[in-house]
């Protein structure tokens, strides 16, 4: 039972303010309980907070201010509070920032009975104050949908009185919000009859869910082997037991197809959670999850912070995907946080992938995770045949990237009415714009990144910060006119080559930056799935889980691309990406797929592993290399990024930190740097990185906290701690 505090008792309330911490208040009339949403006075304002504990007791009781009122009783359960606390400790994030992640949904403090919704009804008068104009524009942006007062005020950056003023003159209508509708029940009966390896895997997962308690399973199986079918059986068991299930997907664009599939399996749509879902819907979901009414949630990584009442299973699909790592704000890896939450609430985790991360592979190898494997594709579908095209033997014309063998294969597929995918992991037209007179390249004015030409936008774009500028006619460096030239291929340029080589073919380019919205992307994907394109040209975005039944050929334009650079994860990432892309071919089983990899180094161990070498041997070799280097998953690592406008000042602060490395030395950690961060300048801020490496058993978080606490950074300098960085 959660502790309850009587009126006047001392309580600790954690506010959701940016620099919030637990502050003492007096319990209000009627008392309050742990986990309640409350409104508390903070200076002259009233802010949202959560009752977090009995209070510290250092502050004079007589001077304590009372809690304003209880907004919602106990939505933040002990289990969720414990998760947020542990996640904050692990990622070295202030607890209030963690609470903000969990409470970002607008309108959480508003009781359903008092919620009003707003919409435009009358014509806007000609003369309006700026604030009123913003409200009207915000309502237009919402496209006529009704919104709550909180949403409207936030979107228009105004106070409630501005909206009320518009209601008074009859431009905006106000009415009571309809009651939240419950989600339709999901029916666990039915489902596919599992076959072969699937039977044992399904039985094991169902048994684990039925038994309850914490456990993590790595479900490994090639694309199309039925991993989804298998873990949906575990979800079904969860539903039968009256427990909730959460399925995380790495990409919003994958949800539509997945939801349709779940609906076909369970007879109703599950709840959906990601940034593309309306705020009203998100608030409803938040409430329903908290009441245990939403049985299954399909969502993005932030769904981990929902107030589940009775979680039985978390599935992390495509667990190796790098987009599970949040790289801005609170830096966390959703896969690791899923395991943490499951350990705290006592539920099962399934990590599903055709190409697991090395971390998960090692954890399974060491027996920390259970390993289940699906050997073959379901039914008659076979894995694609994989072959290298040795580019050293190919003669290509200038500015051409498609070899003759690849072109012939594409032509053959076209004749059969099948689709080909040409994969190039480079957005835009050309990665480099170079002056043929002096050799200078065009860089971003705000970052240490080269500008990438985008013909579609007719501009140069910085992929780091999004800044754009026109393609210069004269060299910015030497001033010579007419010598600026694009160098190297991007997908847009590849599309030009394809159009020239196959003038009759229907093309589709699938690159994240060509689509303004998730909706447009979804339409393009549906078009391809329905056979509306013969040749698909795509970046990374096509590698993720999409099912294109007519696709039988995958051509990788530059299989060596990811192998450059010194990152210790390069081999793992390349292996995963190539296998995922190749896995798009021949999924239906009527015709075998073929994957052709253009490479200048066909003997490279990674290329050979991709082409069907001994996969276990590849992982063992990778693991041995990491072990020798003492890096994750065999050692602990953290990056500390310092950033500021003045490069000398940032370096100086980094050097001063490095001199005071006592707290790190005490745990036997090694410190590297300060050195320029992998991206040394972003949006005009210079970035310097310090890397910390320690034994697996070392407690690095408290040591880093103590180390950083020694020095107060200058006002304009920012510090971000990245536990388990993606690149090292
Ligand atoms: P994965 O998640 O490993 O890529 P899926 O679960 O999507 O594989 O299965 C691939 C295809 O095979 C899907 O269309 C799925 O419905 C079908 N399939 C897999 N297993 C079965 C089964 N036991 N019975 C019927 N269809 C199945
Ligand atoms: Zn930039």
From TrEMBL:
GO terms for biological process: DNA recombination; DNA replication initiation; DNA replication, synthesis of primer; double-strand break repair. Keywords: ATP-binding, DNA replication, DNA-binding, Helicase, Hydrolase, Isomerase, Metal-binding, Nucleotide-binding, Primosome, Zinc. InterPro entries: DEAD/DEAH_box_helicase_dom (IPR011545), Helicase_ATP-bd (IPR014001), Helicase_C-like (IPR001650), P-loop_NTPase (IPR027417), PriA (IPR005259), PriA_3primeBD (IPR041222), PriA_3primeBD_sf (IPR042115), PriA_C (IPR041236). CDD domains: DEXHc_priA. Binds 2 zinc ions per subunit. GO terms for cellular component: primosome complex. Zn(2+) 1 binds at residues 435, 438, 475, 478. This is Replication restart protein PriA. Its cofactor is Zn(2+). One of its GO terms (molecular function) is 3'-5' DNA helicase activity. Zn(2+) 2 binds at residues 444, 447, 462, 465. Initiates the restart of stalled replication forks, which reloads the replicative helicase on sites other than the origin of replication. Recognizes and binds to abandoned replication forks and remodels them to uncover a helicase loading site. Promotes assembly of the primosome at these replication forks. Belongs to the helicase family. PriA subfamily. It is an enzyme of class 5 (isomerase). Its EC number is 5.6.2.4. It comes from the Bacteria. NCBIfam families: priA, PRK05580.2-2.
């Amino acid at each position: 039972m959660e502790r309850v505090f009587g009126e006047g008792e001392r309580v600790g309330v954690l506010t959701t303010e940016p620099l919030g911490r637990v502050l003492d208040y007096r319990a209000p009339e009627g008392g309050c309980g742990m986990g309640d949403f409350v409104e508390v006075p903070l200076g002259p304002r009233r802010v949202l907070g959560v009752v977090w504990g009995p209070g510290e007791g250092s502050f004079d009781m007589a001077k304590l201010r009372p809690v304003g009122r209880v907004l919602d009783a106990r939505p933040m359960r002990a289990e969720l509070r414990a998760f947020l606390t542990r996640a904050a400790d692990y990622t070295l994030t202030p607890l209030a920032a963690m609470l903000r992640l969990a409470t970002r949904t607008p309108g959480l403090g508003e009781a359903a009975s008092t919620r009003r919704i707003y919409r435009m009804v009358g014509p806007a008068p000609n003369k309006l104050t700026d604030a009123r104009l913003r409200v009207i524009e915000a309502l237009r942006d919402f496209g006529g949908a009704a919104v709550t007062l909180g949403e409207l005020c936030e979107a228009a950056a105004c106070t409630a009185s501005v909206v009320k003023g518009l209601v008074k003159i009859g431009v905006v209508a106000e009415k009571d919000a309809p009651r939240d509708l419950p989600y339709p029940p999901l029916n666990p009966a039915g489902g596919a009859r599992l076959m072969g390896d699937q039977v044992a895997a399904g039985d094991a997962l169902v048994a684990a869910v039925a038994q309850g308690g914490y456990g993590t399973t790595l479900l490994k199986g090639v694309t199309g082997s039925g991993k989804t079918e298998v873990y949906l059986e575990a979800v079904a068991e969860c539903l039968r037991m009256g427990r909730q299930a959460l399925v995380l997907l790495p990409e919003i664009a994958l949800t539509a197809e997945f939801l349709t599939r779940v609906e076909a399996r369970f007879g109703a749509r599950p709840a959906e959670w990601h940034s593309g879902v309306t705020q009203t819907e998100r608030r409803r979901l938040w409430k329903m999850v908290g009441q245990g009414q939403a049985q299954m949630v399909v969502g993005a990584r932030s769904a981990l912070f929902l107030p589940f009442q009775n979680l039985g299973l978390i599935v992390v699909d495509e667990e190796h995907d790098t987009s599970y790592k949040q790289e801005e704000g609170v830096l966390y890896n959703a896969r690791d946080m899923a395991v943490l939450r499951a350990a705290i609430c006592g539920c099962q985790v399934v990590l599903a992938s055709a190409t697991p991360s090395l971390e998960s592979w090692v954890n399974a190898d060491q027996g920390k995770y259970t390993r289940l494997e699906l050997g073959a594709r379901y039914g008659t579908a076979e894995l694609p045949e994989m072959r290298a095209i040795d580019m050293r033997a190919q003669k290509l014309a200038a500015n051409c990237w498609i070899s003759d063998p690849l072109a012939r294969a594409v032509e053959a597929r076209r004749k059969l009415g099948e689709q080909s995918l040409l994969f190039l992991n480079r957005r835009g037209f050309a990665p480099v714009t170079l002056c043929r007179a002096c050799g200078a390249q065009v860089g971003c004015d705000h970052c240490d990144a080269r500008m990438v030409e985008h013909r579609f936008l007719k501009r140069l774009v910085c992929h780091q910060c999004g800044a754009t500028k026109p393609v210069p006619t004269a060299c910015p460096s030497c001033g010579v006119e007419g010598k600026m030239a694009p160098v190297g291929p991007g997908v847009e340029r590849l599309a030009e080559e394809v159009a020239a080589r196959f003038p009759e073919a229907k093309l589709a380019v699938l690159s994240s930056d060509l689509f303004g919205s998730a909706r447009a992307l979804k339409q393009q994907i549906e078009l391809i799935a329905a056979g509306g394109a013969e040749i698909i040209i795509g970046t990374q975005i096509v590698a993720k889980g999409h099912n294109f039944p007519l696709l039988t050929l995958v051509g990788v334009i530059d299989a060596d691309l990811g192998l450059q650079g010194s990152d210790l994860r390069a081999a793992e990432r390349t292996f995963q990406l190539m296998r995922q892309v190749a896995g798009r071919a021949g999924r239906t089983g009527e015709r075998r797929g073929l994957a052709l990899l253009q490479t200048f180094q066909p003997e490279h161990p990674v290329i050979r592993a991709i082409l069907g070498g001994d996969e276990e041997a590849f992982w063992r070799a990778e693991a041995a290399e990491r072990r020798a280097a003492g890096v994750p998953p065999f050692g602990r690592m953290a990056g500390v990024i310092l950033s500021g406008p003045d490069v000398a000042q940032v370096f100086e602060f980094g050097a001063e930190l490095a001199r005071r490395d006592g707290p790190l030395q005490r745990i036997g950690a090694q410190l590297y740097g300060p050195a320029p961060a992998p991206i040394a300048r972003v949006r005009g801020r210079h970035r310097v990185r310090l890397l910390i490496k320690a034994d697996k058993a070392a407690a690095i978080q408290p040591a880093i906290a103590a180390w950083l606490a020694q020095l107060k950074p200058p006002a304009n300098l920012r510090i971000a701690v990245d536990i388990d960085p993606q690149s090292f």
